[in-house]
Amino acid sequence: AQLRYSVPEDREPGSPVGDLAKDLGVDVRSLVTRNLRLVSEGGQRHFQVNLAAGVLLLDSRLDREALCGQNPTCSLHLQLVMENPLQLHRVEVDVLDVNDNAPQFPKPEVVLEITEVANPGTRLPLEVAEDPDMGSNSISTYELSPSEHFALSINVRGDGVKMPEIVLEKALDREKVAVHHLTLTALDGGNPVKSGTAKVTIHVLDANDNPPVCDPPISKVHLEENVPVGTLVTKLNVTDLDEGPNGDVEYSFKISNNSPGKFTKLFSLDPRTGEIRTKAPLDYEESSAYEIAVRARDKGSPAMEGHCHLRVELIDINDNSPEIVLTSLSSPVQEDATPGTVIALIGVKDSDSGDNGQVRLQIAKELPFKLVSSFKEHFSLVTNGPLDREKASGYNITVRAVDSGSPQRATQKTFYLRIADVNDNAPNFSSPFDTAHIQENALPGTSVFSVSASDPDEGSNAKLSYSILDNGMQDVPISTYFRIDQDNGTIYTVRALDYEQDKVFQVPVEVKDAGSPALSSTAVVHVFILDENDNAPTIVYPSVPKGSAFHQTIPALAEPGYLVTKIVAVDADSGHNAWLSYQLQETTEVLPFQVERRSGEIRVAQALKESEDPHRLVVEVRDNGTPSLSASVVIVISPEENSVQDFAKSLDLPKSSPKDTNLTLYLVVSLVSISLVSCVMFALAAARC
C-alpha cells in the first residue's frame, strides 16, 4: 500500500500525522506482534510510530525551508515494514509551508546612480528580496514610496521570480535635486501579510547617458550535462551607444542572495568578450538549471551598466547506473512453500530522469521465482513453482536492474537463498526382501543380519530408527526370537533357535525417520535356520524298553539270505544329519547274520547248524552328522525246529510290497517335498507383501 499525509511545518513534536492502523486496515493490537517498524529513506529521523495507538507522530519540529529549500513541493518518504506476513508500505508526507518568514533584502540600503540626461523610461534594476517561504507565502509584490520622478516596475523572470525595477517617469535636473531618497517594500502573499523594506538612495550624475543594453535581456540555453570543461555556453550580445570609454563594456557576474554564487564555480565569464564557458563538470542530478546574472558596465564617468539574465537548462544523459536495495530477505524458506510466497523485498533507484531513470528488474527464467511490482520502484520476489531441497539446497539469485536510457546502463546484485528441509521423503531400504542364514542353537545375541536404509532428507528428518514388527505370521511373537538395534539395523537372536521346531522366519523390519510427522517403510528378512546334528537316531522298530532285548525266532534250517527282521529308525535332523546307517557291533564270536547298511534288514549270512543256541546281536544305528550320533538295540535270535514264520506277521505290520522296505528313502523324499512346498509358500507370501 502507499499512504499520503500532509503536515504543516510548524507542528510541535508529538503531533499526530496520520492513523496508520486505520488506513492500512490493520488491527492495532497486531502491530506489536507483527513488529511494525519505520524505515526512513533519508538520513534523518523526523517521525515515530505509536504502536499502542497505531498513529504516526512527529518526532521533531519540521522546517520546510531547511528540508527542501526552494523546491515547489516538499515530501518526505518513509517505509513501513510489517512481518508475519512480510509487507512493505510506502508513506509520503507532504510538508506544508506556513508563512513564518518575512521578506528580506540583501542590503538594508541600496545606492543607485543615474545621469541627469537619462530619458524617461530609463530603468534601474533593484536587488530582489528573499523570502524562504514558498507559493502564496513567498514574495507577492513590491511597493515604492511615492516619488515625482520615479515609479516601480515589476518584471517576471523565467523561473517565476519577480524582479523590481525603478523606472524614470520624469526627466531629472541634478541642479534642483541631486539625491533622491526612496523606500522599497517587499510584500508576501501570506495571511497575515509580512513585509521587508530597503532604503534606496539615487544619486543623479552628469555625462555618460547611454547604458549598455543586452539583446535579449533574458535568454535561455540548453546544454548537455557532463560536457567537457571549457565548452562555450553563449556569448552575450551587449551594445552601448556611447563612444570611447563610455561605450567600452566590461562584464562581471552579478551575485545576490536570491541568485547564489554557486554558478560561479561552474561557469567562467570573459570580462572583455562576454563569453560564458564551463569551468567544471555539470551534473543534471545535482541541479537541472542555473540562473546566471551578468552585469555589463561601461567605462564612462559616471559608469553606466546593463544587466543580462541567462538561464542554462541541462539536458540529462544516462550517466548513472541503477542501484538495487535489498530491503528484506526471508532465508531460509521451507521447501513446501506455496507459489506466491514472498521471499524478498527489493527497491531500485536511478538518479537519472525520464527514460534514463526508468528501471526494470530481471532474474534468470530457469529459477522457480518471479518478480512482482509492488508499487513504483519497489518489487517483491515470490516463489513461482515448487521447491525441492533434495534437488537444490539453495539458490544464488542474481537480480539485474536495467534502465531505459541509450546506451542502457545496468547493475546486478546476487544473494543466496537457502532452502529449509521438510520431511517429505520416506526412508527406503536398499532391498525390500533380504535373506539371512543362521545355525540352530546359536547363542542368544548372535548377529543375524544388518538391514540398511537411506533418507534423502537432512537433520532430524533423516535420523533413522529400526524396529521389528509383530505381524502375526508366526504363532509366537517374532520379538521373542529376534531383536534389532534401532540405530544401525543389526538383527540379533533373543534365544537359541531350533531347526526341528522352526526352519524359517519372516522378520518384518520397519524403519522410521524422526521428522514430524514421521515417515516409514518396511522390508522383510527371511531368516533360514541351518540344521545342526543335535538329534540322535530313534529306533522305531523293534520297540523295546531300555535295557531289554527283542526276541526273534527263525527256522532252524533257514538258508543264507533269509530275512530275519528289519530295524526301522528315524532322525529328527535333516540332510546329511538324517542319513542313517546300520551295522552290527563287533564281537569275539562270529555271527551267522548280517545287517544291510542302508535298509537295516537282518538276514542269515551262512547256514545254521542244527541245535544251534540263540544268538545275541547288538545293532547300532548311526547318522551321518559331525559329530556322528547313534542308537542301538539288542536282538536275540533263536532258531527253532519246524518254525515257518511269516516275517510280515512277525513285524505285526500289514504286508507291503518290496518297495516299502526302504523306509529311509521315503523319509528323504518326504522331507524334500515339504521343503519345496515351503519355498512355494514363501514365494507367494513375498509376492503378496
From TrEMBL:
<dbReference type="GO" id="GO:0007156">
    <property type="term" value="P:homophilic cell adhesion via plasma membrane adhesion molecules"/>
</dbReference>
<feature type="domain" description="Cadherin">
    <location>
        <begin position="546"/>
        <end position="656"/>
    </location>
</feature>
<feature type="domain" description="Cadherin">
    <location>
        <begin position="6"/>
        <end position="105"/>
    </location>
</feature>
<dbReference type="Pfam" id="PF00028">
    <property type="entry name" value="Cadherin"/>
</dbReference>
<keyword id="KW-1003">Cell membrane</keyword>
<dbReference type="GO" id="GO:0005509">
    <property type="term" value="F:calcium ion binding"/>
</dbReference>
<dbReference type="InterPro" id="IPR050174">
    <property type="entry name" value="Protocadherin/Cadherin-CA"/>
</dbReference>
<comment type="function">
    <text>Potential calcium-dependent cell-adhesion protein. May be involved in the establishment and maintenance of specific neuronal connections in the brain.</text>
</comment>
<keyword id="KW-0732">Signal</keyword>
<keyword id="KW-0472">Membrane</keyword>
<keyword id="KW-0812">Transmembrane</keyword>
<feature type="domain" description="Cadherin">
    <location>
        <begin position="430"/>
        <end position="539"/>
    </location>
</feature>
<dbReference type="GO" id="GO:0005886">
    <property type="term" value="C:plasma membrane"/>
</dbReference>
<dbReference type="InterPro" id="IPR020894">
    <property type="entry name" value="Cadherin_CS"/>
</dbReference>
<feature type="domain" description="Cadherin">
    <location>
        <begin position="106"/>
        <end position="214"/>
    </location>
</feature>
<dbReference type="Pfam" id="PF08266">
    <property type="entry name" value="Cadherin_2"/>
</dbReference>
<dbReference type="InterPro" id="IPR002126">
    <property type="entry name" value="Cadherin-like_dom"/>
</dbReference>
<feature type="domain" description="Cadherin">
    <location>
        <begin position="215"/>
        <end position="324"/>
    </location>
</feature>
<feature type="transmembrane region" description="Helical">
    <location>
        <begin position="663"/>
        <end position="687"/>
    </location>
</feature>
<dbReference type="InterPro" id="IPR013164">
    <property type="entry name" value="Cadherin_N"/>
</dbReference>
<keyword id="KW-0677">Repeat</keyword>
<keyword id="KW-0325">Glycoprotein</keyword>
<keyword id="KW-1133">Transmembrane helix</keyword>
<feature type="domain" description="Cadherin">
    <location>
        <begin position="325"/>
        <end position="429"/>
    </location>
</feature>
<protein>
    <submittedName>
        <fullName>PCDGM protein</fullName>
    </submittedName>
</protein>
<keyword id="KW-0130">Cell adhesion</keyword>
<dbReference type="InterPro" id="IPR015919">
    <property type="entry name" value="Cadherin-like_sf"/>
</dbReference>
<keyword id="KW-0106">Calcium</keyword>
